[in-house]
Amino acid sequence: MQKLYRQLGIMAAVCLMVLFPSNQTLAGGGPLNTVIIVNANSTNSLELGNYYREQRQIPPQNVVRIQWTGGNTTWSLDQFRAVLLLPLQAALAERQLSNQVHYVVLSMDIPFHVVSGTMVNSTTAALFYGFKGPTELKTAGSAYAFSESPFELGRTAFRANWLTTMLTAGTLDQAKALVDRGVRADATFPSAPVVLAKTTDALRNLRHRTFDAAIFSSMIDGRGSIFRTNSNAFPAIRPLRGWQSGLTTFSAPPDAFIPGAIADSMTSFGGVIFGPNGQTSLLELIHAGATASYGTVAEPSSDATKFPDPMAYFYQARGFNIAESYYQSISVPYLGLIVGDPLAAPFAKPADAQWVGLTPEQALSGTVSFGLEFVADPAHPIQQVDLFIDGQFFRTLTNLPPAAGNQLAAFMHGRHFNYAVGNNETLNSLAAGFAARVNHPQSTNLTGIRAAEFGDRVVLTRFTTNVPVRPAAPTNLRPTGGEPGSTPLETGSLSFSSIAGAADFSSAFLKPSQFRFVPSMAHGQRTFSVGGTPDAGGWLKLTIVREGGQNISIATTNQTGSATALQLATALSSAVNASPELQGTNGGVMVEEVVSGWFGAASLTLRAREPGLEPASVRVRLTGSSSLVISPAEEVALDQNVNDLLPRNHVYLTSGVSNLALTVALDTTLLTDGYHELTAVAYEGSHVRTQSRFTIPVQVKNHDFNATLSFSANTNIVAVSGQYQLNVTASSLMSGAVLTTTGGTFNTVTGQNPAAFALTGTSVGVGLHPFHALVTSVTGHRYRTPPLWIRFLPK
After folding, report:
1. What is the pLDDT of residue 476?
2. CA separation for the pair 342, 163 (Å, rounded)
C-alpha cells in the first residue's frame, strides 16, 4: 500500500510548514484559461482590459488587440468575423493557446450585437456558439444548459467555443468597479439572499414557474438563501446576492448587491445597453452593484428559455463561476448579452499548497526535482494538477479519476445499493450508473425512490409514502470518504459509504447533501384554460372536492351580457380568494394568477395554500356554460408541478484525494535560459473543478550567456503620453532580441548590439505592463530577461 502511495504521490497526511497562498481561486476555469479582447482604437478599452488583466493576474500574452472604429453598438456579421472572430482564432493558434483558453472577455467599446439581414445575435452569444441565422435556429438550443458538467472537458459535445462575457458600464470608473467586485467576491461564501420576484406583468413574469425548483435545490444543499416574492418593487432587504424579475422599466438603489451578485429582468431590450431604448437596460443593475447581468438585444417574444433560469443561483452556490452559472441556466442564448466578470466565484473552495525543495528565483540547471504538497477539504478533493510555465500549459502532473474497484454503497429505505467502479469511469458515468441501480424496477417498488442524474449530481426523489421513513441503518457501511476502521454512520433512513474495495486506495466518493429526504416547500398548482364567448347569463364555476363529500362551489356569471372569458375568470379569481372557506389548511385553495390570452381567452392558475404533496392532493374541477371551452374538463388535483412537491435529496460524485504530494522532475534544458514562472494548478474533483493556482518564479542557468533589460526613464511609473526606450544589453554578442509585453510580441530587432526598442505609452495603454526580452546570441543560445514592470498613468 505505501509503495503504491509513493508511486502515485499520494500521502495519507501532509504537515505543511509554509503555505504559498493561491493567486486566484476560481471555479472551472481561471486566468490562464482566459483571453481579453481590447479595442486598440479605444483608450477606455485598453485601460479596462489592462486593469482586468492586472487584477485577475491573466498572462500578458492572453490579451488580443483588435482594430475597430465603428462605435460600440452594432456590427455586421462580416465585420464581426473579420475584426473579432478570425483575429482571435489566429492569435490563439499563433500563441499556442487554442486548447487552453475557454473564456473570452470583451473590454468595452466593442459592439454588443451582430446583425445579418433580419437576424440579430448578441456578440457574446455569437462567440459562445456561433452566429445563429435563419438556417441555424434549429441549433440555437445550448447543449451546455443544465449540464452541470465542466465546460472545458466537453466543448465539442456542447458545440460551443468560449464562455464569453463583456466588461462595460456607463463610464470607465463604473466598469473598473465591476472588475473590483468580481475579484473581491471570490471564496467569500456570502449569506446575502437571492430574491426571485413575480411581477404583475404576465408576459414577463413567466420565470416564476421555475422559482420553486431553484429554491428547493438550494435548500437541500444548504447553500445560499433564495426567496420568492410577488412584487414589482425592488426588494427592501439588501444587499442581495441576486435578483430576477420581469419588468420593462425599473430602478435599483446603489447599494443593491454584494460582490459576486448576478441579477436581471426579463424584458425585450435589456441587452440594448447603448443607444435608444425605451426599456431599462441591464446596466442599471451593473451600476447598482451587480457583478453580472443579462439582457436580450432584440425581441425574444414571451419566451423564458431565452433568459436565465433561477437555477443560475443554485449553480453559483455549488461553486461554479459566473460565466458557468449563467450559460448553464440559459436554454436558448443567441439573443442574450452577458455583461460581467466571468471568473467571479463566491462559493469556490480553495486548496492549500507548498513548493518543496524550491525557493523563489532559485537557479536551476539540468534536470531538477522538486515537490508539491496539497491539502484540500475532504468534500472538495483534488483530482488533477497541471504545470504551466510562463502562463502556458506544460504538462499534467497527475490525474486521479475514479479508481477501478472502488465501492460506492448506499442504504435507502430498506434496500442496499452497491456500485463497483469500472475501468475508465468518469463522474458522469458513475452518476448514471448509480442512478440506474436506484431506478431498477425491483428497487423502486421497494423503496419508492427514483433517481435522475445531472452531470456529477444525482437527484433522489421519494415518490411514494408507502414505505417506512426510518428503517434501521445497516452497520457495515462507512461514512463517505471514510478510511478502513472508521465507525459506521447511523443516519436514520439513509446511509452512504465510499471504500477502496478491490482497489488499493479510494479516489471515488459518494456524498449526500443530507441523510434524509427533505420535504418540499413548493405549493401545488394547476392551470386551466378558458376560451369561447360567454352568452348572456353564461357562468364559470370552481368546485373544490373535499374528503367526505364536503364540496365547495364558487361561481360567477355574465351579468352584463358582454363579458369575456377573461373577465369571468378574473371575477371568479376574486371570489375564490375572498372565500373564508378556502383560507384554511384543510383543502385551502387560492387563484395564483389569471393571464389573458387571444380573443378574450384566459388561463387561470390555482394554488394550494399550504406547501407539499398532501395539500396539493385536493381535487378541483372547473366547469362553465356550454359556450365556454375549458381544459382540463375533468376533476384534477393541484399537482401539475408534482416534481417540485415530492421530498428530495442530492447525492454528489467526486474523485481525487484530499492530501496529495507530488515529485516533479523538470528537464530545464527544454526551457530558455533566464527567468520563468512555474504555476501549479490544482483542480477540485467534482464537475465544478475549482482551480487553486500557485506560482513561483525561478531562473534557468544552463549556459553562460545572459542579458539585461533596462528602461530609459529613471522611474517605472510614467505618463502614458510619453516616448520611451527599452534597452537590451547582453553578456556577449547577440544576433537579435524580441520584446514582449501585454498583448504578446511588441517588436523584434536584429543587427543591433546593444538593442534598443522605442516605446510609446499609448501603444500599450494605461495600466501595469510586464516587459520581457528574449535575446539570442550569435552562437544560438537564448536568454529570457527578468520581467521589467512599468506602470503607465493617464495623461
Report:
1. 36
2. 8
